[in-house]
Design goal:
The complex is a heterodimer of chains A (249) and B (487). Chain A contains 9 helices and 12 strands. With 249 residues, chain A is of the alpha/beta class. Chain A has a single domain, classed as 3-Layer(aba) Sandwich (Rossmann fold), CATH 3.40.50.300. In chain A, β9, α7 and β10 form a beta-alpha-beta unit. In chain A, α6 packs parallel to α7. The longest helix of chain A has 18 residues. Chain A is globular, with a radius of gyration of 18 Å. By secondary structure, chain B is of the alpha/beta class. Helices cover 25% and strands 33% of the residues of chain B. In chain B, the strands form 3 sheets. In chain B, strands 4-3-7-9-12-14-17-20-22-24 form a 10-stranded mixed β-sheet, covered by helices on one side. Chain B has a 6-stranded parallel β-barrel with strand order 13-15-18-21-19-16. In chain B, strands 1-2 form a two-stranded antiparallel sheet. Classes of the chains: A alpha/beta (249), B alpha/beta (487). Chains A and B meet through α2, β7 and α3 of A and α1, α10 and α11 of B.
């Protein structure tokens, strides 16, 4: 479903991704691990279509369709979701209002009918309950004054409501203690489905104890240098990035 | 359809929605300004002699006055002789009447503007609350709705020209008692040539059973609008009043110089909301309304309260400082403002809170949004008199900048002659960050809708102060006013 072919990306005129290739079949969870500066965040921003991440070569296909030139909102409507490492605060806009605006905007872009207020409330309340999110949190301005754990749970809630085909989790574990991490991972695991793929981007293997990947890729110097199963993460944990990458080279 | 979608659709229209001109045959006063023109206006309104004398006196004083230049506004010199000071639809011979007598052409104008002039229409929706409307078209009131129903509880709501006939003593007693004839250049001009506006009197102990509103429409070319509104809330009464305004899209600038006076007696409360949507000029700054307005409320009685809420999105130039004189002990003044300036608009707006009585309190929340090449200034005065023991003020001024060619300025004046007064002032200036915008985009929210969402969040505290029906309108207006402001 997601296929990245020989992707080259410049940021501020500097080449960060240098021929990244990757395939994620439907229903699978793939992890991208790599040392600092390998291009992990560039990968997630490029997939989401952020301005300033200039694709100079290669392409991104979603369900066989080239989405390389699409805007972020068009990609979102086609089913790409990025859970942010640092979710943004929007003062004065309640979480509820933000969720409604996003869901209706996507429905509109897809040419679907928008939800009425009652339908929307029912859906949000059910999803929030599933993720242990209180009514109070839904009323508060988006991410303003939220704890690290609340912010990440809110990202999970957005994911649950927007029902993406491909969810990219960018350093989902950063800023979380172990209890908060478990709670967030639990939420993510509930959303695993045969028609939904995950790309989990992380520096540490810790997260992968809770969100079990089918495949692990190691990103270094702007391309995938090694792919393997779960055991690869344990090797990294034991020997460090340098040793594993050098062995692969 | 959701509010958001409507916003989006209106954004897509990409123009000032109310810019149409209606082909209505009008009677004009001769062009220019002199004593004869003032006599003409007074005669048209069939006014008492004292009012003509009042006007002529104002005119003489005005001739000796100079235009104020202290505001951060730049515009070519206004030629006061190159305008009509009175314009009225020809069909309107004897002033206000019932809806059945109104020229259908005029009714169509209000239909197009979305203003309900049929009482039964407003009644039809079960959920909808009743709103009484006084519709002012150029220099005359076309119709006032729900007058009869209001009169049953003693509320007087009518055009000021009608009040001069039906309740001359009330008008004479209060007119000019808050904004004196010599107050300022534009207020004095208004005193000389004012032609219409609303009059409201709420008797003691009465809570006005519905929202009152006046809808101002400038239509005729080369004409100015000089409305005069007078609202009196007698002891222990309450009223919520709203004004709205629009004008056709024209290449020349048109002058609007209004005076609004509010008087609140003991334990009375007046809530005055404005959604100002005069034509702002085109994207190059051509045309638009010059809006020079004097609005002042007098908390004359103890424990009285006056709250101004304004959403200023229109006009090429806005010069406006709705103020409160906190005369009664324990009286309260509030000012909530959203001022949006896009393209080449200039806004210099704020408030004055004058603490005279003991234990008076005031609250100022100002949200300024600048985009394009616009300049947006908050100018406010908090003044505490020596005898105003226990006076308190809280001021919050937030500015939001969209783009790098616009300006936001905050000019707070604070004068305290009472050492025990407690005055707080907070100010912030911020921008919409690329990160915030990308976050919205990544959720499928397109740029302009994202900007509208973030800006509405920024304005939330003020929007919450508006009556519900108008809050929705105002929210949409915020989005529309900023269309094209983010590339």
């Amino acid at each position: 479903m997601l296929e990245i072919k020989d992707l080259h990306v410049n940021v501020f005129g500097k080449e960060i991704l240098k021929g990244l290739s990757l395939k994620v079949p439907p229903g699978e969870v793939h992890a991208i691990m790599g040392p600092n500066g390998a291009g992990k965040s560039t990968t997630s921003y490029t997939l989401a279509g952020r301005a300033g991440y200039e694709v100079t070569g290669g392409q991104i296909d979603l369900f066989g369709e080239d989405i390389t030139g699409l805007s972020p909102e068009e990609r979102a409507a086609k089913g790409i979701f990025l859970a942010f490492q640092y979710p943004l605060e929007i003062p004065g806009v309640s979480t509820m209002n933000f969720l409604k605006t996003a869901m209706n905007a996507q429905a509109k872009l897809r040419g679907e009918k928008e939800l009425d207020a009652a339908q929307f409330l029912r859906i949000v309340r059910a999803a929030a309950k599933e993720l242990n999110i209180s009514e109070d949190m839904l009323k508060r301005p988006l991410n303003v004054g939220f704890s690290g754990g609340e912010k990440k749970r809110n990202e999970t809630l957005q994911m649950a409501l927007l029902k993406p085909k491909l969810a990219i989790l960018d350093e989902m574990d950063s800023g979380l203690d172990i209890d908060a991490l478990k709670l967030v991972a639990e939420g993510v695991n509930k959303l695993r489905a045969p028609d939904r793929s995950f790309l989990v981007i992380t520096h540490y293997q810790r997260l992968l104890d809770y969100i079990q990947p089918d495949v692990i890729h190691i990103l270094s110097g702007g391309k995938i240098v090694l792919s393997g199963d779960k055991s690869l993460a344990l090797q990294l944990e034991e020997n460090g990035y340098d040793a594993v990458i050098n062995k692969a080279a | 359809m959701s509010e958001e979608t409507e916003t989006l659709q209106e954004l897509a229209d990409r123009k000032y929605k109310y810019g149409f001109v209606s082909e209505i045959e009008s009677d004009f006063a001769p062009k220019g300004l002199n004593e004869d023109v003032i006599r003409f206006i007074s005669a048209k309104k069939d006014e008492p002699d004292w009012l003509l004398a009042y006007r002529l006196d104002a005119y003489k004083r005005w001739l000796t006055m100079e235009e104020p230049h202290w505001a951060k506004l730049h515009y070519p010199k206004i030629d006061f002789q190159d305008a009509y000071y009175y314009a009225a639809p020809k069909s309107d011979n004897d002033g206000p009447k019932t809806i059945g007598d109104v020229d259908p052409e005029l009714l169509r104008v209000y239909e197009k503007l979305g203003i309900p002039l049929h009482e039964q229409e407003a009644l039809a929706g079960v959920q909808q609350r009743k709103i009484a409307v006084d519709a002012v078209f150029d220099s005359v009131s076309v119709v006032t709705t729900f007058k009869e129903e209001l009169s049953k509880v003693g509320v007087i709501f009518c055009p000021i020209s009608e009040a001069l006939k039906s309740h001359p003593d009330l008008v004479k007693k209060y007119l000019g008692s808050v904004v004196p004839v010599t107050d300022n250049f534009y207020a004095t001009l208004n005193a000389a040539v004012f032609s219409e506006g609303s009059f409201v009197y709420i008797p003691p102990g009465v809570r006005c059973p519905m929202e009152l509103s006046t809808y101002f429409r400038i239509n005729a070319a080369k004409s100015g609008q000089f409305e005069r509104t007078l609202i009196i809330a007698d002891k222990g009464s309450y009223v919520s009043y709203l004004e709205g305004c629009t004008a056709p899209q024209r290449d020349e600038n048109q002058l609007h110089a209004a005076v609004v006076e509010l008087i609140a007696m003991d334990d009375a409360e007046i809530k005055y909301s404005t959604v100002q949507n005069w034509y702002p000029g085109d994207e190059n700054g051509k045309g638009g309304i010059y809006n020079f307005v004097t609005k002042r409320g007098d908390c004359r009685g103890d424990r009285s309260k006056i709250a101004w809420t304004q959403v200023e999105t229109g006009s090429s130039i806005t010069w406006k400082y709705p103020s409160c004189i906190l005369r009664g002990d324990g009286s309260k003044g509030e000012f909530y403002s959203i001022a949006i300036a896009n393209n080449f608009q200039q806004a210099d707006t704020g408030t004055k809170m004058l603490h005279l009585g003991k234990n008076t309190s005031s609250r100022i929340v100002s949200k300024g949004i600048s985009a394009g090449h616009a300049q947006n200034t908050y100018r406010g005065l908090v003044s505490v008199h020596a005898k105003a023991d226990g006076a308190r003020n809280f001021t919050q001024c937030d500015s939001l900048l969209l783009g790098d060619k616009c300006g936001a300025h905050t000019v707070p004046y604070i004068q305290s002659r009472n050492p025990k007064a407690i005055l707080e002032h907070e100010a912030t200036t911020s921008k919409i960050s690329d990160d915030q915008l990308f976050y919205c985009l990544s959720r499928g929210i397109p740029t302009e809708e994202a900007v509208a969402l973030i800006v509405n969040g920024f304005c939330r505290e003020v929007l919450q102060q508006l009556p519900m029906e108008f809050a929705v309108e105002a929210q949409k207006l915020v989005g529309i006013s900023l269309e094209g402001s983010v590339g």
